[in-house]
Amino acid sequence: MNGIHRTGPRSRALAVLGIGLLVSAVVGACSSSAATPTTPAATPTTAASAPVVATVAPSSLASSATGPSTAAGTVAFLLPDNTTPRWMSQDAPAFQKWMSQLAPNVKVIVQVANEDPQTQLSQAKAALTQGAKVLVVTAVDGTQAAKIVEAAQAVNVPVIAYTRQIQNAPVKYITGDDPHEIGVALGTWMAAHTKQGDTIAIIAGSTTDSFAHLEHDGFMSILKPLFDSGARKMVGDVWTPEWNPVKAHAEMDAILTSNQNNVQGVLAANDSTAEGVIASLKTHGLAGKIPVTGIDATLSADQLMLKGLQSMSVWRSVDDEAQYTAQLVVGLLTDQKPAADFFTTTVNNGYGDIPMKSVPSRVIDITKLQDLIDAKAIDKTALCQGIAAGTGPC
Amino acid sequence: MSEHNAAAVNPLDEFPPREHGGPADRLVGLARRWLSAVLSRGTAMPAIASLVIIAVFFQSQSQYFLSPANLSNLAVQATLVAIIALGEIVVLLLGEIDLSLGSMAGVTAAILGVLITNGHVPWFLAIFIMLACGAAMGAFQGWWISWLGIPSFVVTLAGMLGFLGLQLWILGPQGTLSIFDPNIAALTGTELPPLVGWILAALVVAAVLVRGARGASGASGALGEHRVRAVKSLGLPVLIAVVIVGAIAVFNASRGVPTAFLILIGLLVVGWWITMHTSPGRHLFAVGGNAEAARRAGIPVRRIRLVAFALSGTLAATGGLIAASYNGSAGTLTGGGTLLLEAIGAAVIGGTSLFGGRGSVWSALVGSLIMAGVANGLDLTNSDQPIKYMVQGIIVLLAVSLDTVLRQRQSRGRHMGGAHA
Hints:
The complex is a heterodimer of chains A (about 400) and B (about 425). Chain A is of the alpha/beta class and about 400 residues long. Chain A has helices at about 10-35, 60-65, 85-100, 115-130, 145-155, 180-190, 210-230, 245-260, 270-285, 300-305, 320-335, 370-375, 380-385; strands at about 75-80, 105-110, 130-135, 160, 175, 200-205, 230-240, 265-270, 315, 345-350, 355-360, 360-365. Helices cover about 40% and strands about 15% of the residues of chain A. In chain A, the strands form 3 sheets. Chain A has a 7-stranded mixed β-sheet with strand order 2-1-3-4-5-11-10, sandwiched between helices. In chain A, strands 7-6-8 form a 3-stranded parallel β-sheet, sandwiched between helices. In chain A, strands 9-12 form a two-stranded antiparallel ribbon. The relative contact order of chain A is 0.14. Chain B has a single domain, classed as ABC transporter involved in vitamin B12 uptake, BtuC. Helices cover about 75% and strands about 0% of the residues of chain B. Chains A and B meet through helix 1, helix 3, strand 7, helix 8 and helix 9 of A and helix 5, helix 8, strand 1, helix 9 and helix 15 of B.
């Protein structure tokens, strides 16, 4: 009624809002379906049998063994977003540190795309214009990033896929986590910490994130046989939009309600969903009484472990990954091929078999938090804030 | 409720009761009139109809949907969206929009986390500071909108981005701050003891009924008209009393009334009182209906706008507090994701106009119960994520369409009634 005669700037602005929301919804839906690899071909070939290794393999690249390289030029490090803390707080500084140690004359450009594949493509092109000789890319969208590889290939610049895979493109190397292996570690841990006949709830990650799907395949490879044989019972297997703890909380509420709290273990796909799960368990009086998994070993998850509310998390050293990547970059700049045993596996990304250096991951529980402090992954003062002395490493 | 707009013309005033049949006929007539009196008063009524349809549907799909335990979960899940929606409604009534509420919730939650976890500030002081920060951020945006005349869409879009940056900056490299303070956790993690819940219910029901009865006895005029007035003024209080008693019974059958839900209801009652019974509240509707006319009538339009944005900032901070309590932490995702869109959706589904001048604070409650109810029902029925998104989209569209269609019909009926009189 009021709206009919009002065609002022306000209603126009609202129309723009509506259109904007529609467009972003469509784009979001398209990119998410594209970013979701469901082909087993994308799974690292050796992942299922790969053990979770704890030690850091010594470098097998000549460049780091013989002191700083004389390599020069520009390298671009393209990161996906600002909302995930690790990119700017850990990956970028670690990569810059290793580059300055291994090749002090190389200039490193760091760019962050605001979760937008178009922005990332523009940033890649800008870096190539500035004369970048290698692109290290954590893709916003693993499929659309093929365009970045295409643009780089046109000027003979190799691309290293960092942490996230790039599909259907001639990527030079891949470094990063092996989500399938991490999933296997979660599934194995959960199987070991539940008994015959126990019920397990699965709070999986974001359905638009390829990592979440590979991880899901990983833990299901362990748990599905148990569910099929009746050794364990699955009560819910839910995806969590954005890995958002608020959503995970609501999902866990629903599972507890429809099973009258009869749940003996929760496989939460990362620390963020674990946080929501634990909050829900608190309301239902189950927090600390049943095992809850997670991955990333974030500070708040580590504190939840100290409080006895989260049982475990999986940790990968960002510093290791940055080091391996820097070694590969220097190798490319100086035309040195890495030794064959440098790579841990190959990944078929739809274009071909790409050599991959995966970062070892390890299970962290309250008894291993000291190791994270020793590795400078977390700060002891921050960790022990509000925690009773004598608990774990505090 | 829209007494403000709808009270002026009411079809019932034009039609004194006519039937002189048996007692059964009278009873039916009375019930019909009671129902239509209630319906004509609430902007949220079509949304309540949607809520009932959703409840029936999901109960048929999962026996747990209407179980007391699930309804308790649902009430807490709806609270966060409802508080943000309430903040949105305050500015929607003005015909403005605030896109920064999610980010403000996130910033203030981060401030709370830093104060409590790193600064060891007492919880009540930390809450006060976070609410003050929310008010200041809202007022800051309100100043750009009211004094410089920049469209609220632009200012709050800038605010959404800027405050998100501020949130990430405050949280620092670790990204998530755990908040273990038991008082903060208690806001969403505890329930009132059942007895306290009943005492509270008794007090509120008594207050509502006394107020309704006073309105009924105050009515005068012809016998028929008197009866209609009595029915009209008692209809809503009786309905409210029934709903309150029912809700308390359901909550007590589970773990008791959730503290968070009680906070929400408290905010809604205060919001309702301000918007319906104070002059600044009425000015919101006037400015939203026609800002120029309001200005000529001597209403301080600029100040009203500034205060409204400050208020919505404060409510965003309250949402941030609830979110921090709900997850026991303040993180980069706090206030993010689809929260803002869900809140705007809840306000509109509940019957508040995007174009100003029409709406009710209660639409925050009904709309967010619909949003959370659908999400919860889809969780309970183990639906796949793609199905969830599509169903949620369809529900938003249908709920708003139902609202619009019923409203058009109502206003047509009103015009016809007027012509006959």
